[in-house]
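Do me a favour: review this protein, sequence plus C-alpha cells, and tell me how the chain folds. Record follows.
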Amino acid sequence: MHREQAARSFDQQATACARLGSPLCAALLGRVAADIREGGPCAEAIAGHERATRDDAVPLRLLGGVHALALTGRAPELAAHYPSAGGAFDPGRPAEAWPAFRAAVAGHPEWVRRWLERPPQTNEVGRANLLLAGLLYAVPTAQLPVRLFELGSSAGLNLRAEQFRYEGGDFAWGPLDSPVRLADAWRGEVPGWLRAGAARHEALRIVERHGCDPAPIDPLSADGSLALRAYLWPDQPERRARLDGALRVAAKVPATVEAAGAAEFLAGITLEPGTLTVVWHSIMRQYVPAGEWRRVEAELGRLAAAADGGAGFVRVSFEPRVAAGRERFWLAVHRAGEPERLLATAGPHGLPAFAPQT
C-alpha cells in the first residue's frame, strides 16, 4: 500500500513537470512510478520514503540526485540525453532517456539515497520577478535605504534581485549589462503601479542583505553550485542560464544566509531609523510547520507594530493562496499600517507574471 502511495506521488509530479514545461522529467517520473509499482531499482532507492508527504518532495529529490550523477560524469550514458550535461534531447521521444536513468539509479544506490535525505532547493531565480516588482511598489521614495531580509533563502540568490534585468512587453528595468536577464517577465498589460515604481526608482539602494534557511547552500562552493544546478530540470536551458548568471552576480555582491528557522531569524530583527526594513519570502510557506509559522506571523506583527514615519516595514511574499475562489501563486505586499494588497499572479517559477483581472 505504501509503495502505491509513493508511486502516486511520482505520477503527480510527472503531471506537474509536464504542465511546467519539462517533458523529459514528466516522461522519466511516469516510468519511475511504474518501476516502483513493479519493485524495480527505483522502489529500492526510495525505501524508507514511501510514506513521505507531498511537501517532502521525494520525486524532486530523486530527480536532483540522478541529475547530479549526470552533471558530475558518473552517469555518462544518461548525460548523453541531458542537455544540461552536454547531451541531446528529442522532445518527440522524451522517454528515450529512461533505460539510462534506471541504470543510474541501480548503479549508484548510496549516492541516490544520500540525495534523498537532502531537501530540494532550487533557489528559483525567476521568482525574483515578483519579489522585485513588490519592492518597486513598496519603496516610497528614491534612494531610501532598504534592509532586505529573506525567509527560506536557500543560497540567497534572490537577495541580489535588483542586480537582475527584467523585460516584458514594453517594460524593462534593471542593469543593461546584468548576467541575469528575465525575459517575458510580464504578459498582457503591465500594471500601472509597476510602471510608477520603475519610474520612481532608476535603481534601488539595498544596504543590507540577510537571509535564513534550515540548510543554507553556499552558492560559491563546488558542492553548492552542483546542488543548485542538479535541482533544475535538465531540459530547461532558460532556467539554467538564469542560474548561471545569478551565480556570477553572487560572486560580486555579498549576502549572508544563516542556518536558522524563520521564526528564530525574525526574532533577531529590529527596525532602524531612516531605513525601510523589508522581509520577503517565496514558495517556502508550505515547508514550515504550523506551530513555527504562528511564531513567524507573531514576529512579523511585532515588526509592523514598531514601524513609524522614521523606520518603515514592509512584507513581500509570493506564495500560493486562494483568492476569488481560485488557488494561485500571488504577489502580496503588506506595508505597515495599510491593508495587504494582492498585486499579481504567476506560475510557481515566477515567469511570466500577470496583473489580476478586475
Q: What stands out?
A: DSSP finds 13 helices and eleven strands in the chain. Residues 61 and 116 are 5 Å apart (CA to CA).
